[in-house]
Amino acid sequence: MSDLTELTNDVIKNSDLVKTISSYMKLTKKGKDYWGICPFHDDSNPSLSVSPTKGVFTCWSCGVSGSAITFVRRFEHISYMEALRKVAEINGYSDPRLEKIVKPKAPADARKEAMLKCLSDLTLYYQYALNTEEGKEGLDYFNERHLDEGIRRKYKLGYAFKDGKATCNFLQSKGHSFNTMEEIGVATLISGSFTDKNQGRVIFPVCDAYGNVIGYSARRIKNTDEAKYINSPETYVFHKSSVLYNYHIAKESAKHDEFIYVCEGFMDVFALSKIGIDSAVALMGTALTKEHVALLRSLNVEIRLCLDGDLPGQTAMLKASKLLADEGLNVSIVNNQNSPKDPDEILNQDGPEALRMYVNNLINRIDFALNYYKNSNPLKTMEQRKALVKNFIPILVNIESRLELDSYLRKLANVTGFEVESIRELLKNAKSEEYIANPSKVIASFHPERKALRRLELAERELLFQMLQEPKAVAFYEDKVGSFYDEVYRQVANYIVDYSKINDNFKIVDLISSLEISELDNKDEMIQELTELSYEDTHNANCSDELLDNLLTSIEEEKEKIFEKDMLQQSIAGKDPLEKARIMAEYNRRKMRKLNDKKKEK
Fold first, then answer.
1. What's the half-sphere exposure (Cβ side, CA atoms, 13 Å) at 577?
2. 174-214 pLDDT, tens per residue?
3. Domain ranges (residues) in the chain
4. Do 23 and 90 touch, CB atoms closer than 8 A?
5. Which fold has domain 242-372?
6. What is the dihedral of CA 181, 186, 187, 189, to 10 degrees?
């Protein structure tokens, strides 16, 4: 056994699988296992199962499976060694061997470094331009918006000279190529010369989670026919769906405040900053994404949604609150329905105290949803009232407190005019659905993507399971069977044979860990198969000699049938219809003779 395999086994033995995965996502205990929304595909119902007794997890929908190391490696998109260290760190396990292993140095990303350096130099140039004589136009704009020097410096606000060619020439003088200027989404070629797309505009830099400028939003200063904003396009370093404005600042203060506001735009973030709330980020005109949720989850704080009070803003908050709640995050919502003002307007028109009252007027997701549906649905017809109840039932299903549930049932009845008991009965029927009452059973047994298992597949799978339990089954496979027909089963079985020669007293998680550090092309598929086998409870508990012999008989008979069918197909290939019919008739006669001979033997 290699040193790395031994170290992996020690880390796994000293780690808590549930604790490890819970540090990334919400898990709910159901029976002896834990369940959660799978982070590896677009999941809506909990399909990721975590088994602390087996030491493995699996998603019954997308198939991702493995150990704690597998989960961390896939979730964080890091190397095996980095995941191994991370699992040890999460579980407080230290081992001198972890320190001795030299962490492979990631190759320098020359393209990214060049772009970030160019953006950094350009940002400083924009900040410089703001304080020049020409930049006074931009400075006046910021002053009109009540963005003082402190805010401008904190958020690196700037101004782009009207001479866009001069900006590009400056960057060239700093050693940046025109290709890099194009890649960052700033330079454009006009009449044979490169010029700055942002020329004559005020600049709002956008930073990544580490504070590096990765893009810009450039606003026009005067009311003209030009576009109000010019935003950086998607680039190698800038992906709008995975960036939250001000996250690099907010992530530090949020840990102290224990909350973070999710706002609509830059000005909302600035307004909250002015009243001492740095724990605020902005979506910048995009819907909340899974990538955004991952950033917010890592903070482990209350999420406070503060989007616009109009119908589009409220609809966005409803969707965002559901996404956050489904991910197990603690979410509250600023109760601003039908409010015509945003935080910046409230601050400037009504003062700091009014804004504090505004952002602290919080309601929970259920009250918000009820208000939303009540105000967005006219409720003039029976169908409209029924639609409101239908929309609200999925929310009520997840309420565990009886008192809280009764309160919301009465509120819903009051809004719709239906009897409380009628809504309660509907809720009871919804809860009695099999997929709600016992999701683990349904998910584990429902695999429509799989074809029905034939006798051969069932026999091979049973023997494969026994090989994971009993050394004699491994020897039986090697001596009597030699090879499975199913390619994945064959690869797993052969791996078990090889591994058992190193360690004959192994567990499934040991095999998975060993596969993790192997260089096999299909190791993920093999890990998935091993994990699913560990969950199955339909196999024989006693690995008797009779069972093994019966499995061998089934495998040999089914392989013979496949061989005969293959030979039949070869023999009729290219033949005319009459010859094909004669060959088929002879094949069927032989088949019937064999069946009759077997009946006589019995």
1. 0
2. 999 999 999 999 999 888 889 999 999 999 999 999 899 99
3. 3-100, 110-238, 242-372, 377-445, 455-590
4. yes
5. Dna Topoisomerase Vi A Subunit; Chain: A, domain 2 (3.40.1360)
6. 140
